Amino acid sequence: MKTLPRPVPSAEERFAAVHSVCHDSVYRYLPRRMIPAHLAEDLTGEVFMIVWEKVLGGMEPEIPYVVAIARNLLRNAYRTSAKAAKLRSSLALAQQRPTVQDPRMDHALGMLKEAGRELLLLTSWDSFTSEEIAVILVAGAGAIRVRLHRARKPFARTLEAQYTRLGSPGEAVQP
To answer: So which residues are the signal peptide here (predicted)?
Structure first.
């Protein structure tokens, strides 16, 4: 018995599949790195315009690749915006970092260099693996694991010092 060949999915169907898989990750990634939500929505639209072009070219991009597109568009937006200086200053550490209930955690994140903080946030908040982060940051997975290890050490030391000095939440402070 001869089976009929499956029809090749159209570009629209392939794009819809990529969009449904990647949209939430991109939409979570951008607002955490921008203040106005409408700019994040605009950039998300631009990301998927590029993805549409990639799909038309025969590519089926995965989440890390699409987030890398978002990251590049975000960097370009900062560079080319007439208000870039004002936007960068408004993204001071307190606004760039996630709001954390425990001030000791917030302090420990604040003590990290921007690159280390970004790695920890991509891992913890965005749940990306080292391999996915490597695609996003255009680096080797091994290098990402080393950088992540190096970022975790000062974070853990600062956090430990904070808890030792101030005690655990709810505990009386030791003199």
So the answer is: none
Q: Where are the alpha helices (DSSP H) in 100-140?
A: 103-110, 114-124, 130-137
Nearest-angstrom CA–CA distance, 164 and 174: 8
> Please, are residues 116 and 154 in contact by the beta-carbon 8 Å criterion?
yes
Determine contact, residues 146/121, Cβ cutoff 8 Å.
no
Closest CA to 74 of 30, 109, 16: 30
pLDDT in tens, 112-132: 888 888 898 888 878 899 999
Amino acid sitting at position 29: Y
Q: For residue 39, give the 3-state DSSP assignment.
A: helix
Q: 84-93, pLDDT tens digit by residue?
A: 565 555 555 4
Q: What's residue 30's pLDDT?
A: 85
Would you state the pLDDT for residue 99? 58
Cα–Cα distance for residue pair 69/46, rounded to 1 Å: 9
Contacts with 67 (C-beta within 8 Å, 6 or more apart), sequence order? 22, 25, 26, 29, 128, 132, 135, 136
CA atoms within 13 A on the CB side of 104: 14
